[in-house]
Automatic annotation (TrEMBL):
UniProt organism field: Danaus plexippus plexippus
Listed Gene3D superfamilies: 1.25.40.180, 4.10.80.160
Protein's UniProt name: Regulator of nonsense transcripts 2
Cellular component annotations (GO), alphabetically ordered: cytoplasm; exon-exon junction complex
Ranges of compositional bias, category Acidic residues: 806-830
All copies of domain MIF4G, residue ranges: 325-514, 529-743
Length: 996
């Protein structure tokens, strides 16, 4: 169809070149388009293209109207008259109307006509052929459209009648035969096809479908099918269909999402004979089979699967037999979806022979009666094989059906586990669509017919396995509801054991759970909703200032509002990961205005981390990660100290950790490696700042202990070759340490970590003897029992790593942390006082040298000559006597008047004398030199202070060696305004005074 324009261009060129082209070309078109009304169109697609091609040839002038139009009119007339009942030529005529209807019939689409009418515009008419001939063609097409509309209404009525009949059958019998379902689907497809064609015709012709155009939705769902069952008293359970049979999305995926093995077998074709074996069996056929196959009490079930072909004495491929045995032995270990899917692919690709399929069927059927957990996986295995190996599934279902009949006819009270295995296996196959739903309901009907003893347990297990699926399926809902009612009536009228009563009620409520009353939702106050919205939904980097102003406007004097605001500010796990840093920055800026915000938020987060460590459930893992990263962001904005961060880090590797593989801690089990991720998450967030000073040294020490914890978990006997240590945890651990310390050489064993820790202990605590530290076993028990074994840290301001006081204070606390029985046993024992530890020689020499240096400095300071005060202000009382008289001024004596203070008795006396000017000049020069020296010393001191401040700021900003640092650290944090104390400085307020 897309090549018609190119073909038209080629024909036009040939027509212009050769004058005889059109006549010969037309003769061939007459042969192609000449057919009778009784002829059946075999290739409608080709005719659709030919008709449009021929019409375009007339339109471009290759064929004249006189020559080409009669043949075109004959073709259209035959196509319409021969198809007024079946309407199979809709695509041919519809294509002609869409592409050539404007030229030959003057058709205007309904959409264009409505638009022109709306804007009061006249649509131009095509004058390619006379209007009379256009009217004739248009009337011919409208007649076909009217017949199509009548056909559509008739098909609609027939579909409605068929659907109503099916609904009546479904209500009375609870099921539909496959023939009726296929018939309904066929009529539905025919009606949909006619409806689409009629709608397209109405669009191109500009007509309206009317009643025939109304959509008709017919589904097989039982409309308003409800029933009530009374349980013991007056409580009635309303049962409805149409609900979801799967409990959650994982269950739905397990039973509906199966790998396609045809991808691995592209040339495989399913045999027709196998398809015939899987036809649905009606209830009457099941009754007949059951009567024919009725077994006596002592008869064993007949073998269903044909005997495996006699194998040769020496099999040609012994390795194939060994491979099959290994596969069948490994099959019971496939206890998850991935393993069972891989097993199915492996069997199809490597072990797919007739004998192997027979053996596989027997192995699936002979699953241990105690391994009920394997039944869903074996059913999935059979369901995966069904599209390419249906004989395995068919034989398995037949064996289960025969085994079920045998147990029902046997009527003995033994082998209850085997009976339960059979019915649960049938239930699992029903959910995969391998076992007929109707046959499963018939099994339930047989069990309800003789509802006693083992039949009660078999019926309850069948309902618990596939009852919910049958109940929610529209095809079997009505019948399942009837059987449920029958089961509850039998329970009511029969004197059953309490154990059976409980099983029946549990099975019923599992299939039809009672509707729980809707819990009234507690309305949250508007202020709480507002705080949650602006912090958890609206907060982002671009609107931090706006939200900060809103948070400052809150009534922080109200305890309830303040508590809710702090709760949401501390909820770093409630916000998006991209908004976590913005929330930390907002908290830091708000802390400059509200002093209680920072400590309250940090305490809340620390408590959150501690609580989640006390309950190591996997459901809190993402919450733990978010809280730890948020804590690191708060440290980046200086809301907590590095001591708090290291306390959290050490708690991750010490809280509840036994350090002994034989003594597993419930707070830190062997398979729990999530704490390694928590440590790495916190170090990745704020570890780049521990690159100078005491923080760097602390991080170096911590990395040794962290590696010790990692290798303790890695070397646990829980991890084997089959159950390997998680590789992603190893990668996270290595990337974290390499980013913090690129040149650090990682330990390769747990023993190396122990040796490094012992070396640190010898370096920091060389005087710590064997009698002063705890035994590993006792420490492990205490750490598991108390969970408080956290490494003690010194302050950031202290560079001395020795902590004799903290160690001596902590020892008795830890020693007294035992149980009451140990305390009672040790009451009568004499308590020896602790002897002071002997100081090493180096400490004694250091202390003596230090005391000697201090005494020398004190003596040297005492021997220093203090500068005497030579200039004393002249008292006001003697200033009058020092003034020169008029006669003294006339004399003009050179010199400087000095006042000499002498002491006579208890009173000072002042005598004036005239000193030479050289003395006064020397004194002034000396005073000026002293002043300049003081200014120089002051300037040097200020320069040293400024340089130290710059170095500290550079270290805080990540400018030191060992890490790049985060440029956002400490930004956007306003310092709280400090009001100046004392008298105000006028020069600072009004500027310095200016004298003219």
């Amino acid at each position: 169809m897309s090549d018609i324009s190119a073909a038209i261009t080629l024909c036009s060129t040939l027509h212009q070149t050769y004058s005889e082209f059109s006549s010969f070309f037309f003769e061939n078109w007459q042969k192609i388009l000449s057919f009778k009304a009784t002829d059946k169109i075999t290739n409608s697609s080709k005719l659709r293209v030919d008709l449009r091609f021929y019409a375009e040839l007339i339109a471009v002038g290759i064929f004249t109207n006189k020559t080409g139009l009669p043949l075109l009119g004959i073709v259209l007339t035959v196509l319409i008259n021969m198809d007024k009942e079946e309407h199979n030529n809709i695509p041919i005529l519809l294509s002609f109307c869409k592409h050539c209807g404007e030229d030959y019939a003057g058709l205007v689409p309904k959409k264009i006509k409505d638009t022109a009418k709306k804007f009061n515009v006249t649509v131009p008419r095509n004058t390619f052929i006379p209007a009379e001939k256009q009217t004739a063609v248009r009337s011919l097409l409208k007649d076909y459209f009217l017949s199509l509309t009548k056909h559509l209404l008739a098909e609609r009525a027939q579909l409605q009648a068929l659907h109503a009949a099916n609904q009546r059958t479904l209500h009375t019998r609870g099921e539909l035969s496959q023939e009726r379902k296929d018939q309904l689907e066929q009529h539905q497809a025919t009606y949909d096809k006619l409806l689409v064609g009629a709608q397209n015709f109405a669009e191109v012709l500009g007509e309206d479908l009317g009643e025939a155009g109304e959509p008709l939705t017919l589904s097989m769902t039982v409309i308003e099918t409800q029933g009530t069952v009374t349980i013991g008293g007056n409580d009635e359970i309303i049962m409805q269909a149409g609900t979801d049979p799967w409990q959650d999305e994982d269950t739905r995926t397990f039973y509906t999402s199966l790998p396609d093995l045809k991808v691995f077998m592209p040339n495989y074709q399913l045999k027709e004979a196998v398809k015939n074996k899987t036809e649905t069996v009606t209830e009457e056929m099941l009754d007949e089979d059951l009567k024919e196959d009725e077994l006596s009490d002592n008869e064993e079930p007949a073998p269903v699967v044909a005997d495996v072909e006699q194998e040769e004495a020496q099999p040609a491929n012994v390795s194939n037999k060994y491979a099959l045995d290994a596969f069948l032995n490994e099959l019971p270990n496939c206890i998850n979806r991935e393993l069972i899917d891989n097993a199915a692919v492996d069997f199809v690709l490597n072990l797919n022979t007739k004998n192997n399929r027979k053996k596989l069927t027997r192995v699936l059927f002979s699953v241990a009666r105690t391994r009920l957990d394997l039944l869903p996986f074996y059913s999935r295995f059979a369901s995966i094989l069904y599209p390419v190996l249906p004989d395995v599934c068919v034989d398995l279902c037949q064996m289960l059906k025969q085994d079920f009949k045998y147990h029902v006819r046997k009527k003995d009270q033994i082998n209850i586990e085997s009976k339960i295995k059979v019915v649960r296996f049938i239930g699992e196959l029903v959910k995969f669509g391998l076992y007929s739903k109707m046959e499963a309901l018939y099994c339930l009907k047989v069990l309800l017919h003789d509802f006693k003893h083992h039949h009660i347990e078999m019926a309850c297990n069948l309902l618990e396995t596939c009852g919910r699926y049958l109940y929610c399926n529209p095809d079997t809902h009505q019948r399942t509801m009837i059987y449920l009612q029958q089961m509850m009536r039998k329970k009511t009228v029969s004197a059953l054991d309490s154990r059976y009563v409980t099983q029946i009620e549990n099975a019923f409520y599992y299939v039809c759970p009672p509707e729980a009353p809707a819990q009234p939702k507690e309305e949250e106050p508007p202020m709480h909703q507002f705080i949650r919205k602006i912090l958890h939904e609206d907060l982002q980097k671009s609107n931090e200032e706006k939200i900060l102003r809103l948070m400052r406007k809150l009534n922080w004097d109200d305890p309830e509002v303040a508590a809710v605001a702090i709760q949401h500010l501390a909820g770093g796990w409630r916000v998006r990961a991209s908004a976590r840093r913005a929330l930390a920055r907002l908290t830091a800026e708000l802390a400059a205005w509200q002093e209680n915000v920072a400590p309250a938020v940090v305490d809340t987060i620390l408590e959150e981390i501690r609580v989640t460590m006390e309950d190591p459930h996997p459901k809190y893992n993402q919450r733990r990660i978010a809280s730890v990263r948020y804590l690191g962001e708060l440290y980046n904005y200086k809301l907590l100290d590095s001591r708090d961060v290291f306390t959290v880090l050490y708690s991750f590797i010490t809280f509840g950790v036994s350090n002994d593989h034989s003594n597993v801690s419930p707070l830190d089990p062997s398979d729990n490696v999530f704490r390694i991720r928590l440590v790495c998450a916190l170090l990745e967030t704020c570890g780049a700042y521990f690159n100078s000073g005491s923080s760097k040294k602390r991080l170096d020490y911590f990395l040794v202990f962290f590696q010790n914890y990692y290798w303790f978990k890695y070397s646990d006997p829980y991890w084997t070759e089959e159950n390997k240590f998680p590789i992603y945890v190893k990668y996270i651990y290595q990337e974290c340490l390499s980013s913090l310390r690129p040149k650090l050489t990682l330990f390769t064993s747990w023993q190396q970590c122990k040796d490094a820790i012992e070396e640190i202990r010898q370096t920091l605590y060389p005087d710590l003897g064997e009698d002063e530290h705890f035994d590993n076993d006792d420490q492990g028990e205490d750490s598991v029992a108390d969970g408080l074994d956290t490494i003690i840290e010194t302050d950031d301001e202290t560079d001395n790593p020795h902590m004799p006081e903290e160690s001596s204070d902590e020892d008795p606390i830890t020693e007294s942390a035992g149980n009451d029985e140990n305390d009672v046993q040790t009451e009568d024992l004499p308590i020896e006082p602790r002897r002071p530890a002997v100081k090493p020689v180096e400490d004694v020499e250091f202390e003596s040298a230090f005391e000697k240096m201090v005494m020398e400095n004190i003596a040297e300071r005492q021997r220093e000559n203090r500068p005497q005060q030579r200039d004393i202000a002249v008292p006001m009382t003697c200033r009058q006597t020092t003034k020169k008289t008029y006669e003294q001024l006339l004399q003009g004596k050179e010199g400087v008047e000095f006042v000499l203070m002498v002491r006579k008795g208890m009173k000072p006396q002042y005598k004036s004398f005239n000193a030479p000017p050289e003395l006064a000049s020397n004194l002034q020069q000396q005073a000026l030199a002293d002043k300049q020296e003081m200014e120089r010393v002051k300037r040097l001191t200020l320069n040293i202070s400024e340089r130290q401040e710059e170095e500290e700021y550079s270290a805080e900003s990540g400018g030191g060696s060992g890490g790049g640092g985060n440029p956002n650290r400490g930004q956007h944090v306003r310092q709280k305004y400090q009001h100046p104390k004392g008298a105000p400085d006028a020069d600072l307020i009004f500027g310095p005074k200016k004298f003219k």
